[in-house]
Amino acid sequence: MSNEQELKELVRQKYSEIALQDKEDNQASCCGATGCSTEVYNIMSDDYTDLNGYNSDADLGLGCGLPTQFAKIKKGDVVIDLGSGAGNDAFIARAETGETGKVIGIDFTEAMINKARTNAEKLAFHNVEFRFGDIENMPVTANTADVIVSNCVLNLVPNKDAVIKDIYRVLKPGGHFSISDVVLIGTLPDGLRKSAEMYAGCVSGAIQKDVYLELIQHNGFKNIGIQKEKVINIPTDILKDHLNEEELAQYQSKEAGIFSITVYAEKPTEAKTCCGPDCCN
Predict the structure, then answer these.
(1) Hey, is 174 helix, strand or coil?
(2) Contact indicator for 281, 255 with CB cutoff of 8 Å
(3) DSSP string of 113-151, one letter each residue
(4) Beta-carbon contacts of residue 227 (< 8 Å; ≥ 6 apart)
(5) What's the gap between Cα 151 and its chain centre?
């Protein structure tokens, strides 16, 4: 894959397939990539089942954290969920914001949007809606959201800087985000980074942790912090599909690592008004 559009189309196709799989198939693989491990356990995501608002039909096992648990959502808030999938995080956010708030899920996979809307109708949630669109250019007006959440999504987007800029645009001054994502520390072997399957499975689209945090700071956010961090251990049978013996030995020596982090940041109360491509930075 050589350009952003091709990578986005790859992710769209993969997650359209995932929308038709059950949770057990997704959890037995690398963040939803089809059937890539004989070791059946959840590589990425945390357990949602004890959180208020949890709905099993909306949980495809695709996350890498619990951003809604850390998002400081208040009653009446407007919450946006980036890459909302079947609606799991949106429904948990709705339990926090209540009937007086509003939750908007955004996804660029029609199969996921359809599944999320079906789930919302079953639950009779009238203040949760799902919009089709790119998270680099959200179908939302500026200064709309009190809180933005996202779970294992930005790492799939080639232009992460564009997403962070649009998060800044859409948040109200004084609003904040809590995002769980996959990042790297050190250099991954080329076999992992170049594999299309691993890209759709959340790994080779990830960037360095320090670069990720710098992008957030560069785009004008303040009070940036890591709310949770954990190492992602990929089973050897997955690694063997993508690495030669030398690369496998290098990776297992822990010279490089894959981590799930949940990042918090705030848009300043007196946010700058954008007048060009760089003035929000």
Answers:
(1) strand
(2) no
(3) HHHHHHHHHHHT-TTEEEEES-TTS-SS-TT-EEEEEEE
(4) 70, 178, 262, 263, 264
(5) 3
Three-state SS at 231: strand
pLDDT tens for each residue of 50-76: 666 656 555 555 567 789 999 999 999
Question: 118 φ, ψ to 5°?
Answer: -60, -45
Domains and CATH numbers, the chain: 4-266 (3.40.50.150)
Element (H, E) at 197: helix 196-200
Q: What's the chain's average pLDDT?
A: 81
Return all residues near 12 (Cβ < 8 A) that are at least 6 apart. 108, 109
Identify the burial level of 193 via C-beta atoms within 10 angstroms of its C-beta, where 0-12 means exposed, 13-18 middle and 19 or more buried: middle
Contact of 152 with 180, CB cutoff 8 Å? yes
pLDDT in tens, 202-246: 566 788 999 999 999 999 999 999 999 988 877 788 788 888 888
Task: Choose among 69, 77, 144, 53: nearest CA to 106.
Answer: 144
The percentage of residues in the chain with a pLDDT greater than 70, rounded to a whole number, is: 69
d(CA 204, CA 152): 13
- Burial (CB < 10 A; 0-12, 13-18, 19+), residue 208, is middle
Model confidence, pTM: 0.80
Count of positions (residues) in the chain: 281
Considering only residues 74 and 29, tell me which one the structure prediction assigns the higher pLDDT: 74
What number of other Cβ atoms are within 10 A of residue 175's Cβ? 24
Burial of 123 (0-12, 13-18, 19+ CB in 10 A): middle
Measured over the CA atoms of residue 74, residue 78, residue 80 and residue 84, the dihedral's sign is: positive
Per-residue pLDDT, 213: 97
